[in-house]
Amino acid sequence: MVDLLNEVHAARDARDFDRLGGLIPYARLIGMRFEADPEEPDGLCIRLPYREDLIGRPGSGSLHGGLLGAFLEHAAIMQILWRAESRVLPRIINFHVDYLRRGAQQETYAEVDIRRQGRRVANVHASAWQTDPRRPVAAARGHFLLSPPEAE
Amino acid sequence: MSESLAESVSLEQAKRLFEGSPHGALLGLELVELGESYLIARVPYRPELVGNPETGHMHGGVITTLIDQSCGAAVIRQAGPDARIVTLDLRVDHVRPAEPGHAVYARCECYRMAREVAFARAVAYDTDPDRPVATSMSAFMRLQEESARG
């Protein structure tokens, strides 16, 4: 069993960002990368390098829309863990994605704004951008449950 | 066996189209049923799709991707094979985690096709269609020929 919170804190203390990428199988599958944020001390920069198997429709040259939503969802989870020291892996309640521009065959970045974090729930806004943070390709908001699952 | 030949051929064609998505293929999305006004797609469980290694639950993003692609396909089914569409927005409510080890299914329908905009809804489930793991609403824009080029 992996203690995710300890893993994230150990990775942060060691500045070992690669360790974060290995924690969640799905994030590893799509190739999400975690790095030190060059613009914010102790910040976490989350990006998704372009790969051909991230394309939605063959020949469209556009990233899969569901993937962009999923990327933002996982970026939100990791930023909550990174910044807010949730005691458990945040569990998704809901997520609403607006698609603003075509996701081109380029690297994509996630910007995450934790609007409110209570004891039990976090409200998060997130946007995905490629060449210019002011021109996002997708913007999302969602809620995450921070309380431990009942069974435990 | 009750399927007519025409129905089974169109399911085969639709499967080829659906399963031709490069990213859908990475996750293993499959089209399993094509109704008159709905379709059902699924994502078989694989350890690579897990979002919580402590519980083995599939990542919510996998379900989002399944729903997005399936609702898009349901809209195309209504609009005709040559229609070009883009997703405007997609909302997913994750009402309970999917059972580890089980495929997740999405039943999608395009319930309103207007001239420029289409609306779809979806229910995702694992073992029992009456006990959803997620519900979803989405809207799509139909591209005109001119903007389709850009």
Key phrases:
heterodimer; A: 152 residues; alpha+beta; Thiol Ester Dehydrase, Chain A; six-stranded antiparallel sheet; 4 helices; 6 strands; B: 150 residues; two-stranded antiparallel sheet; globular
Task: Please explain how this structure is put together.
The complex is a heterodimer of chains A (152) and B (150). By secondary structure, chain A is α+β, with helices and mostly antiparallel strands. Helices cover 28% and strands 30% of the residues of chain A. In chain A, strands 1-2-4-5-6-3 form a six-stranded antiparallel β-sheet. Chain A is globular. In chain B, a hairpin with a 6-residue loop joins strand 7 and strand 8 (132-142). Chain B starts with a helix and ends with a helix. The mean pLDDT of chain B is 90. The longest helix of chain B is centred in the middle third of the chain and has 20 residues, at 60-79. In chain B, the strands form two sheets. In chain B, strands 1-2-6-7-8-5 form a six-stranded antiparallel β-sheet. A two-stranded antiparallel sheet of chain B has the order 3-4. The chains are: A alpha+beta (152), B alpha+beta (150). The interface between A and B is large, with 40 and 39 residues. Strand 3 (91-99) of chain A pairs antiparallel with strand 5 (85-94) of chain B.
